[in-house]
Each structure stands twice: as C-alpha cells, then as structure tokens.
Amino acid sequence: NNSNRKYNFSAGPAMLPLDVLEEAQKDLVDYKGTGMSVLEMSHRGKDFMSIAAKAEQDFRELVNVPENYKVIFVQGGASTMFASNALNLCPTGKEKADFVTTGAWSKKALGEAKKFCDAGEAATSKESNFSTIPERNTWNLRDGAKFVHICENETIGGVEFKETPVGLPDGAVLVADHSSNYLSKPIDVNKYGIIYGGVQKNIACAGMGIAIIREDLIGNAAPNTPTMLDFSTHSENESMYNTPPCYTWYISGLVFAKLLSEGGLSAMEKRNQEKAKVLYDTIDASAGYYNCPTDLKYRSMMNVPFTLAKGGDVEKQFLKEASDAGFESLKGHRSVGGARASIYNAMPKEGVEALAAFMKDFQSRNA
Ligand code: PLP
C-alpha cells in the first residue's frame, strides 16, 4: 500500500516515479526469474550487462545523442566532473577555460577548475544576487579558451538557460552542468562538447553521474590525471573499468524506458512547463504575498524559489504547516532562506496543484 507517499519537493535526492519504484519492488528479490536481486548481481554477468546496455541505448535514443558522442556512467557525482572536465580538456594545466557564474554550482565548478587550468570568470550575475543570467553579448570570452562552462539550471537560485549559448571562440567547446534539469526537455547535443550531471534529481537515486562527451575530447587528459577521472578509462571500458553503481544504473534504465514510452523529452517538457506555470502563476497572482526573486526570463522549470513578504515567523509557520500537510522538504536552501519547490520530472502535476491550493489557502488564512 503506497497511499502514504508524500509529495517530495526536495532538491535532491528527489522523488521517483511511483510506477518505477513499484517495478523495482516487484523485482527486488528475484529479478525476472534470475534468482538474484539486481543489488547482488555481478556487473560482468550477462543479466546486469544487458540491463546496462539497454539503459545506455534508451538514454541515447531519448536524448538523441549523435554517433560521435560517447555516453559514460561515472561515480563521484557532478562535483567530481568539475575536476574531470578541466583535467581532460586542459592537459598542460595552462590552457584557459571560461566560466559563466550564475549561482552556487557554477561558482563551485569554477573554483575546482582553477586547481587544474587557467580558469576565469567570463561573466557573472553576482550583482543581482544570482537572480538572472548575464546576456550572451556581455560575456568576456578569451581567445584560445578550451572550453566555456555554464550551469544550465542553478538548483539553489532557480535560474535556467532558455537557449544554448552559441558563438564561442574558435576551438572552445561548451561544457554544461545539467544536474538539475537533465531529461527535462529536448536538447541539441551537437551544440555541446560535454553535457554532464548527477542522476539523483531528475533521473534516479543517488550514486551516479552521466556524461555525454564528444569523441575527440576523449584521450587527451593531463598525464597525472587519476585513472578514474580520465574519460578514456570509462569510454574504453563501457563504464565498467571498476565496479559501477549497478542499482542506480538499473533504476535509471527503468526511468529512461518510462520516459520513452510516454513520448520522450518533448512530452516531458510540455508537462514540466505546465507544472511550473501552476506555481509561478500562484506566486504572481498573490499580490506580493509570495515573491519569486528570479528574473522572469530565466525562471527555472525545475526549482521554484519563493519568499513570503511577511518573512520570519510567518514563513516558519508556512513551512511547518506545509510539512504537516505532507509537502516534504519545501525549505529553501540555507544560503537563501525562504521556500523552494523542486518539481522535477517525477513530481506529478497533482502534487504541484495541491501545493498551489495550499499556498492560496495559507494566504487567505494569514493575509
Ligand atoms: N551541479 C548542480 C546544478 C547541482 O544541483 C548539484 C547538486 O546538488 C551538483 C552540481 C553537485 O552534484 P553531486 O552531488 O552529484 O556532486
């Protein structure tokens, strides 16, 4: 009986689709008559190999990954990729890399890259407290830069790129962190050198990252790159150089198959737009009772931060009542306060509608 399930608005790990959990539950002890749980299987046995291969194939179909890109499944999350990107694209450690900082995560990516290459800040929205994205024509990109890094969706600030930046200096590729909007909408992979992100928000449970890497960017890592951070290690070994996070890979595969069967990423985008609209409309129609600090143009479809004009105690009361009513993890990130509703792919529209109704009711009772 799964009727006790909450609407979980956590930024991650996040809600999973109920049918995926139920399918995993059904197969937990004896996976399809193999007499074993996926939790127990050798990653080199034929049962898991076929789970892994099917997941990759479905992912490639879903995202429409071109032939000349590799998909690798890695550990260490997106945070490890911050270092891997620089180590693989800047082999002497002197090459330039330009970062657009639009919030906490792009700042972290820049900080890490600085350890391994000449990483600089090409533009920042710091002056607006990271509530917007600097216009493309203001970016100060350096000739000779090996890559330009963006965070497609800032999970904490709730700002999201609406278009893929183009017109980079010759030889520079776009590297993008998709951790919090992976598989939320169609993307044109050809515009990127590397797309990467952890799976624990919009795809599956924690423990794995997925990177889509243009083939010519693999095999040139700095000589002292740890084996596990060298893209070629994973690309040459089907992401099985060492023991992969098998169960997370399996759950990801269930999600990919589900998304394909439901019309793929265009269908997902349509649903996500509808869901986000319900919340933003509620905030905008509240006559300033609720406020969303982000620039209208870049409002995230995935993470909706908001504050209550009455602040302090009323905000606390709001969060307490929301939690009592079964809306899980609505508290904003400790660095910005307020509330934040993360509404990834697996959040049903009813969850968002229920939250909107709660917000309206709370306002009418505490106006
Ligand atoms: N990038 C973004 C946009 C994130 O939201 C997060 C995690 O919250 C990270 C990177 C770090 O991901 P991980 O925990 O997988 O290292």
What does this structure look like?
It is an enzyme of class 2 (transferase). Belongs to the class-V pyridoxal-phosphate-dependent aminotransferase family. SerC subfamily. Residues 7-355 form the Aminotransferase class V domain. Pathway: Amino-acid biosynthesis; L-serine biosynthesis; L-serine from 3-phospho-D-glycerate: step 2/3. Its cofactor is pyridoxal 5'-phosphate. This protein is of the alpha/beta class and 367 residues long. The protein folds into two domains: 22-261, 3-Layer(aba) Sandwich (Aspartate Aminotransferase, domain 2); 264-365, Aspartate Aminotransferase, domain 1 (Alpha-Beta Complex). The protein has nine helices and 14 strands. The chain has helices at residues 18-26, 46-63, 77-89, 104-113, 231-236, 246-261, 264-284, 312-324, 349-365; strands at 7-8, 69-74, 96-101, 118-124, 147-151, 153-154, 159-160, 173-177, 194-198, 209-214, 290-291, 303-308, 327-328, 339-342. The longest helix is centred in the C-terminal third of the chain and has 21 residues, at 264-284. The model has no long low-confidence stretch (mean pLDDT 97). Bound molecules: pyridoxal-5'-phosphate. Residues 12, 77-79, 105, 151, 155, 177, 179-180, 198 line the site of pyridoxal-5'-phosphate.
